[in-house]
Design a protein that fits this description.
Distance between the termini: 24 Å
Strand content: 25-35%
Order of helices and strands: EHEHEHHEHEHEEHEEEEEHEEEEHEEEH
Largest sheet: 9 strands, mixed
CATH class of one domain: Alpha Beta
Number of helices: 10
Structural class: alpha+beta
Shape: globular
Number of strands: 19
Amino acid sequence: MRVLEQGTPGCGSSHGNCGTITPSHAAPLAMPGMPGIALRSMLRADAPLYLNPRFDGPRLRWLLGFARHCNWRDFARAAEARAAILLRSRRLLAELVREQGLDCEFAEAGELYVYRTPRLLASDERHHAALLDRLGIEVRRLRGNEVEEAEPALKPGVAGGLFHPGDARLRPDRYVAGLAQRVRELGGVIESGARIDHLEARDGRVSHVRSTRGVFHGGQVVMALGAWSPLLGRMLGLRLPMQPGKGYSLTYTRPVRAPRHALVLREAAVCVTTWASGYRLGSTMEFSGYAEGLNRTRLDALRRGAAAGLHEPEGPQLLEEWWGWRPMSVDEVPIIGPSTRWSNLHLATAHGMLGVSMSAATGELLAAQLAGRTPELDPAPYAPARFGL
C-alpha cells in the first residue's frame, strides 16, 4: 500500500479538531428550517453557522442541493446511515486503539451537552434526544444541579444537560500519527509532500497518478482527500456534491479547573475537550468556499462562548490557533465505495465534522469491498452510485 499525502499525515482537519468520538452526532445539519438559519447567518459573521455572502457558483449549487435535502424524510434516512457507521466505528476504534497500542489519550468518558436556557434544552430534548432514543443511542437527561455537580468547571446557572455516555475522546493528531506509524511498520509507504497534479484515466480505469513526488501506478486507487476531493475529482470527470465547511480551534496548555468531560456549550455551540497534554476550544461552521486563513471574528466567538460558561475558559498558554476544512456532502452522509465510472477507483470522503468518529468503520468497509468480502455495514447508504459517481 502506498499513501500519497500532500503534506504530512494528519496535517488537515485531523490535526486541529476537538477529538470527540460521537455517535451522539447522528443527526445531520440538513433538516427543515436550516436553510433559513443559514441565510440569516449572513448578517452575523460570528454566528456558529456562518454563510459568507460572497457569490460563489459551486457553493451556491451545493447550497441549493443541501436545501433540497432539508426535509424530514431525507433527515431520517441520513440519521440512520450516520448512526450505523458511527456506532460501528465507535466500537472498532476502541479495539484499534487497544490492540495496536496507539498512544492518543483515548478516554471513554462520554460527552456532556450543557444548557443555560430552558427553551433550548426543551427543544433538544424533543428533537435531538428523542432521535437518539429511536436510533438506540443512549442519552441521559440531567437537571441543572446534576450538571453542575458533575462539572465543577462550569459557572453556575445551568438549566440542564444531556449526557451521552457512549461518546469518547482522543488527541486526534496523536491518533493519526499512531496510525501512520503502524502503516509503515506493516510495510506500507507514506509519500509526504506528494501533492497530486494529475489523475490519468484510460479504458475505464485510473491508469496513474502524477504528483510532486513522481508518477505512481496501482491496481486499485482510493480517493480519500477530504475537502480536496471535489477539486481532484474534476480531473476524472466526477462532480462530487461537496463543499468545504471551515472550522476553527484554539489549543492551550491545560487550565487548573479543566472540565472532566468533553463538553458542548450549546447556546454558543462551542466544543471543549480536555486531555492530559492540553485543552482545546473548537467548532463553528463557516461556508466561505476555499478561502484560506484564520478569521479573527470566529476565534473571538469561541473565546466569548467559552467565557460565558466556564470558570477558566482558556488555559495559561495559547499553543495554537487553527483552521481547517471539513468535507461536507450535500446529503450529510459520507461517500464511501466503488466508483460507477472508473473500475479501479474507490472513494472515501465527505465525512463532514465526523471524520475521526467514522474513521475505523470507513476503513473496515473499504477493506471488505477491495477484498471482495461482504461488509459488516450495509454499503448502500454511502455508495457513490447515489450521485452517479
